Amino acid sequence: MSDKPNEQRPILTTRQGHPVRDNQALRSVGERGPATLENYQFIEKITHFDRERIPERVVHARGTGAHGYFEAYGKIGNEPASKYTRARVLNETGVRTPVFVRFSTVIGGKDSPETARDPRGFAVKLKTVEGNWDLVGNNLKIFFIRDAVKFPDMIHAFKPDPVTNRQEPWRFYDFVSQSPETLHMVTWVKSPWGIPANYREMEGSGVNTYKLVNDEGVACLVKFHWQPKQGVRNLTGAQAAEIQAGDTGHATQDLYAAIERGDFPEWEFCVQIMDDGDHPELDFDPLDDTKRWPEDQFPLLPVGRMVLDKNPDNVFAETEQAAFGTGVLVDGIDFSDDKMLQGRTLSYSDTQRYRVGPNYLQLPVNAPQDGARARTNQRDGQMAYYVDDAGTNKHINYEPSGLGGLQEAPKPAKDYHQWVEGHLGRYQTSRTLDDYRQAGDRWRTFEDWERDELVKNLGDDLRQCPEPIAQRMVWHFWHCDENYGRRVAEAAGVDLATAQALAPLPGKPAPHQHRDVPTYTDGKQEGGNKATEPAAAK
């Protein structure tokens, strides 16, 4: 580690040698506006990151999957679903939409243990009558960062050291100590919620903020969530170690065995809805992925259910070649200006074209269902094994044409149009109060044993970190909640008074503590967080 003062460090540049003057934010139209295509610095950074490993996924390498179906209730809460969206998959009852779901860990390699303390991927491909809809998320409802330009840095800090090839705690905490927005996710991941007992007893979330659009062209903001009918169960570090001693793939086995014996796992699909707009009355930006929408203000509204009832016939052909992308949406579901969503939409599909090939959508696991077969003018490329349906004249692979070929679909009677106005630049959100408040709220709503486990895990980690990093983390936790910071300081062997005396991070506003506790559900209506006996004992 370098001890050079900042003014003596080399300057960060792009691969073209251009100095990077802002590595914290995408270029966007105003603070909340959409990102722009000429984000060259980001595109160069993220597309190189997408190609860092072959052929294994850079993230979410360890995974398992299953087939099933989705059924809509035709309502969102007590209202007809059509009030909010024209998406047929959410409106039509009596239709079983085929799905393929891939569960995964994030940081570890393909053969890493499924007991790792790590977020879990929860990616769903719905093969609707209007084409594929991919809902790509995690088990937790939030994320570490809120701007996609930081994603490669975050993963690099969490991955093994490029010199020692070991995951070093100091690298993780060095990054998060400089990024207060991560505190909420750190509080979740270092608690028992960081080790789900298995994939069946695990929540899922789209994480990003999307929009629903109805027939009138009116949009609302939406968050998507999967609530397990089996209840939620997590593991302590000791329980996970006991399982890992005998089985590194316990969650894969658990899912496979449950489906084989006919114990089909089921999730209820729920949404949270908010009017489209800035919402200045909130202390957080609803487009900020590091924040939860409090459920007492924005309740979980049931929309449908998903059942997994068939294991893959071949793991490689299906689970490993399954390819998901946040840009794969159907009419009636649209993008918000969530900067993580905007960045992921480029990155995910770009990764699949590189990892699996430009024709990855011709693979059966990825192709839309027969009734929504792809008809494009795209041709050739590596591993092409059929030509997309070209319409009435196979000689015509362009549009427009007066001699046949494909034509544009009819436009909706009323489409959604977003007014965009602002100065082009790099902006970080100005609503940062909840960087500390939601982490503190989470601490106060944990059960006693969850707080004990969280403090132990943080203390064990921080004792392995250089003193300045440990002190800064204690400073952060103390500003989330005084008791939180005090207990972590004791567990980590950090002098609390010394940590409290630190100045705020340069360029970051001073945090303020808060005591209002929001309403969270966390699956507890369906059995709660049952971290009792290890999963292997069930």
TrEMBL record:
Binding site for heme: Y348
Keywords: Heme, Hydrogen peroxide, Iron, Metal-binding, Oxidoreductase, Peroxidase
Bias (Basic and acidic residues) ranges: 513-527
Cofactor(s) the protein requires to work: heme
Residue numbers annotated as active site: H60, N138
Top-level taxon: Bacteria
Cellular component terms per the entry's GO annotation: cytoplasm
EC number: 1.11.1.6
Domain Catalase core: 13-407
GO BP annotations listed: hydrogen peroxide catabolic process; response to hydrogen peroxide
Family membership: Belongs to the catalase family.
Task performed by this protein: Decomposes hydrogen peroxide into water and oxygen; serves to protect cells from the toxic effects of hydrogen peroxide.
Protein name: Catalase
Source species: Pseudoduganella lurida
Classification lineage: Bacteria, Pseudomonadati, Pseudomonadota, Betaproteobacteria, Burkholderiales
